[in-house]
Amino acid sequence: xxxxxxxxxxxxxxxxxxxxxxxxxxxxxxxxxxxxxxxxxxxxxxxxxxxxxxxxxxxxxxxxxxxxxxxxxxxxxxxxxxxxxxxxxxxxxxxxxxxxxxxxxxxxxxxxxxxxxxxxxxxxxxxxx
Length: 129
What we know:
Blueprint: E1 3-7, H1 12-24, E2 30-34, H2 38-46, E3 57-60, E4 63-66, H3 67-75, H4 93-111, H5 122-125
Parallel strand pairs: 1-2
Antiparallel strand pairs: 1-3, 3-4
């Protein structure tokens, strides 16, 4: 089953996060779509996700994960020591998401915003929906 990551295609932090995941996902487990794209909006609709959801979203095994739960589940499948971050899934999501929300709320101010979604290189374009 596909593991799909939905991300804010206008956010520099989100763009760098996608590039980070691609470099550490040797098995190419993850596919990507920006929330702003027609595919991203269709996935949100299919999973009854509020269109105003401001979160990194992971669709895995026909279930949606949001915020820190999504990020930590992705880490579980990355190469290197990053997979060990998934141990933080044992913490209550409210606690984890507090920190996630602080970063998400300030991401444009701290990292900037793009005018449009990134264009992937030809070798990774096939991983984008």
